[in-house]
Specification:
Layout lengths: L3 E5 L4 H17 L2 E8 L18 H25 L4 E7 L3 H11 L4 E5 L13 H9 L4 E4 L8
Parallel strand pairs: 1-2, 1-4, 2-3, 4-5
Helix pairs in contact: 1-2, 3-4
InterPro entries: Rossmann-like_a/b/a_fold, Universal_stress_UspA, UspA
Protein name: Universal stress protein
Organism: Massilia forsythiae
Length: 154
């Protein structure tokens, strides 16, 4: 039914559990997996003339976020390997995570977006995470929203 499933993760424990559930779902469907981590865009210092010495350059920031993306997606990729699935990972940069998720799903020809109902967006996401809500409203692709009954480790 689904050939290629986009699975998102933001690095939170809930998101990691959701992503691994996405891999299990992909295994049942016999689908390829694309794991996506969306990092925020580089923020230039407000006062460019006075850059603090510890402030990373744009290149350093991009390299750091690439490493963070690889670490974040590592357990999901290991899970996909263990399931014998064809898999790839991608770190993308955007301050509008939901729009980037939709764009990547379109560009990569994904049949389904698999994501959690809660990430690390805070207490205001009582029913459905804000990124998930925005993805649902911005895409015509099917979105499977995975919701954990209880927090990981409880």
């Amino acid at each position: 039914m689904y050939r290629k499933i986009l699975i998102t993760t933001d690095g939170s424990a809930v998101s990691q559990h959701t992503a691994c559930a996405g891999v299990k779902f992909a295994q049942q469907m016999g689908a390829e997996v694309l794991v996506l981590f969306v990092a925020p865009e580089y923020q230039y210092p407000v006062y460019v003339e006075i850059v603090p010495p510890a402030y990373p350059s744009e290149v350093e920031y991009i390299e750091q976020m690439q490493r963070m993306g690889q670490e974040t997606m590592g357990s999901v990729l290991r899970s996909a390997q263990e399931c014998g699935l064809k898999h790839t990972c991608l770190t993308a940069f955007s301050d509008a995570a939901a729009l980037k998720i939709v764009d990547v799903a379109e560009q990569q020809d994904c049949d389904l977006i698999f994501m959690g109902s809660h990430g690390r967006s805070g207490w205001g996401q009582l029913l459905l995470g804000s990124v998930t809500n925005k993805v649902l409203s911005q895409t015509s692709k099917p979105v499977l929203v995975h919701r954990l009954i209880r927090e990981p480790g409880s």
